[in-house]
Amino acid sequence: MNDQRAGDGYGDGLTAAQAARTGLEQIAELTGKQAEGVTGVEPGEDGWIVGVEVVEDARIPSSSDILAIYETEFDLSGQLLAYRRVRRYARGRGDSNGGS
Fold this sequence. Notes:
Helix content is 16%, strand content 41%. The protein is an alpha+beta fold. The chain is elongated and about 45 Å long.
């Protein structure tokens, strides 16, 4: 495998910033839900893994919205390989995964 992880991208492939934007757009299109933002971008085996926060269930007041994190996987050319919902939670409820 040619590992050219220089700076923000892989050689001539997709940069981290481009992967983040692509993740936001793809999740919004695939789920039909409002993407709030990117929660993380990390290099994958042959591309990028991008976490995207989505409003799953908008409520009134918005402080009671149900949010979700979707994980997307892209190859170096920006093609979506996979996506999945990895977490659902109420807005404002801190991280319940035991983090410090």
